[in-house]
UniProtKB/TrEMBL annotation:
It comes from the Bacteria. This is Uncharacterized protein (DUF1330 family). Residues 34-108 form the DUF1330 domain.
Amino acid sequence: MAVDPSGSDLARMLEEQPDGPVVMLNLLRFTPDGRSSYAEYSRQARRFLQRYGAEVLYAGDGMAPLVAEEGQAWDAVLLVRYPDRETFSRMVADPEYQEITALRTGGLAEAVLQPTVPWT
């Protein structure tokens, strides 16, 4: 399962609605020993979020779902607000950021990374 966006994923995202803030919904399923690796990634990623003007709006552990199909429960949920889609793309392409992505990739068995925009 893919846990990191590809170049074509990022290009498609930039074409959809490039202006205005975007909140990234992160649904995370950890590998058996992945929570500590992801925690270290999160600790190191804070400086990049600050550098690019992003902020964590919410981070929490998933509980037993009330309504979901089999296999749709997630270990954690994260909401991160970026000034715009271009800023997100620049951050994930940053060579220094790329140095810590192995912590994220190695800690995750499955992920959903979905850009969202506010309803008008």
